[in-house]
Amino acid sequence: MGTLTVVEYVREYGSSPYRAWFDSLHAQAAAKVATAVERLELGNTSRVKWIGTIGECRIDWGPGYRIYFGKDGESLIILLGGGTKQRQQADIERAKAMWAEYKARKTAARAKGKRGTTWR
User: Fold this and answer.
1) pLDDT computed for residue 110 by the predictor
2) 57 closest CA partner among 77, 34, 41, 36
C-alpha cells in the first residue's frame, strides 16, 4: 500500500475530537500516537482492526492507546478520536457517530456543490 493522506475530522463549529484527545496526552504518549499516525500515512495498517467502517489503530503501550478513524476512498484517512482500552467501547461508539456526521456533512456539501459550493 502506498502513502495515505491523514487529516483530522473538524466538526461543523471548528472543534476536532482527535486534536482535543491528542492535546490531553502526556509527552511520551503523544509521541507514541504521532508515530502511529506517521505509520498510517506510510500505508502501514498492520496495527489496524476494522470495526465495521471504523478503523482502530492499536498502540500496545501504557494503558493501550487507540486511534479511531474512517477511510474515505482509497487514500484518505479521517482521524475521528482516540482513547484507551479501558474506554474502548464508548470510544468506538463516539467514533461511529463522528463518522456518520462526517459522511452526512460530505453528502450535504456535495448536494450544495451542484449549486456552486465545493467540499474540501
Assistant:
1) 86
2) 36
Supply 100's cell numbers: 456518520
Burial of 47 (0-12, 13-18, 19+ CB in 10 A): middle
- Kindly calculate the radius of gyration of the chain based on its CA atoms and give it in whole angstroms: 15
72, exposed or middle or buried, with CB in 10 Å at 0-12, 13-18, 19+? middle
Q: Which parts of the chain have pLDDT scores under 70? A: 1, 114-120
> For the whole model, what pTM was predicted?
0.90
39: left (phi over 0), alpha (psi -120 to 50) or beta: alpha
Residue labelled with grid coordinates 461543523: 12
Of 80, 46, 51, 85, nearest in space to 65 by CA? 85
Cell digits for 41? 500515512
Asked if residues 98 and 81 have their Cβ atoms less than 8 Å apart, the reply is yes
